[in-house]
Amino acid sequence: MCGCTGIGQTTPSGAGPAVPGSPPSGTSGGAALCCACPADRRISTNGNTNYVPTTFRSSSYSRLNKAHIAIVRTATAGSVTITKTFSLSAANGANTTTHIATATTAITDAMAAWEAAAASYKVRIEQPGCSPQDLTIKYVASITTSNADVSVSVDNTPAPTPSSNVAHGTRMTLYLNGTGNVSWTMIHEVGHTFGLSDEYTYNRPAATPAPSLNYKGASDPNQTVTLSTSRIPPRPATSFAFDNATVMGINGNTTYPKYLFHWISIEVDALLRSEGIIAVVKVV
Ligand SMILES: [Zn+2]
Fold first, then answer.
1. What pLDDT is recorded for position 30?
2. Which of 37-41, 231-235, 250-254 has the lowest mean pLDDT?
3. What pLDDT score was predicted for residue 2?
4. How far does the centroid of ligand 1 lie from the alpha carbon of residue 179, in Å?
């Protein structure tokens, strides 16, 4: 695709004669990516095992992050764009126009909120033979009618309702009459569609030792977040309790630590590897 070969390319030991570029399956068609070459692909990654293993969620639980990822680069800059498609349907009395419109706006705003938060960070690529590149992180929501990455059930069940939730990263139920405002709720739930975990434990009081999350990175060091061991009063012991002071941990909180973007470095790293490039990729 780029008409450029072998930049920074190394051959793994035992891999046979040096052949520039990635295998023919790579989108570059067998030539390693040049420093400013773009790349893109579909992703479908279980965040529960690949991004954020937790001690309070079974490793067999899948939280798929289905999306399209694309990098566009100049010599020292560029962007990484995450595009996720959503389809919406109305349930339990939700209006097919006004309530769907409310949810659609919430999705668009939520992706914009993640992009605004990501403006504090960059994904840095250090590709062998190239200058370091700091990529701006972009999120794009696309509304579609079929084969969406995330199907959203917009539910107008009167309060009290269950909590809005995302099953397995791909099936969201948005309860319009739930606690909390719809805008923040969508930001949090969209976080789950990226494969991110809740930062609170379930069914308090929880077991000892304190439950924890382990945020993996590509070249970033793993980061462990430890939650508290006891329920937060006045919530009943059997209910969920909100805990870590981030968008994934406390109702209404809008703090986005750097580690919430580590998954993007993991995916950029994997994208580059699919093109035959072994680079240092981290969030800075
Ligand atoms: Zn949640």
1. 46
2. 231-235
3. 47
4. 13
Distance 186 CA to ligand 1 centre (A): 10
Q: Does residue 27 lie in a domain region? A: no
Domain contains 251: yes
For ligand 1, the distance from its centroid to the CA atom of residue 202, given in whole angstroms, is 10
Residue 154 belongs to some domain of the structure: yes
Cα distances (angstroms) measured from residue 277 to each of 27, 218, 247, 266: 12, 14, 34, 14
Asked whether the predicted pLDDT for residue 252 surpasses 70, the reply is yes
Torsion sign over Cα 133, 275, 67, 165: negative
Q: Does the pLDDT at position 266 exceed 90?
A: yes
Kindly give the distance from the C-alpha atom of residue 251 to the centroid of ligand 1, in angstroms, as a whole number: 9
Number of domains comprising the chain = 1
Q: Evaluate whether residue 58 is within a structural domain.
A: yes
The rounded Å distance from CA 133 to ligand 1 centre is 33
User: pLDDT digit string (tens) for 191-220?
Assistant: 999 999 999 876 555 556 778 899 999 999
Ion ligand 1, residue ranges at CB < 5 A: 198
How much is the pLDDT for 4?
Answer: 43
| Cα 116 to ligand 1 centre (Å) | 20
Distance 175 CA to ligand 1 centre (A): 13
Domain limits for position 201: 39-283
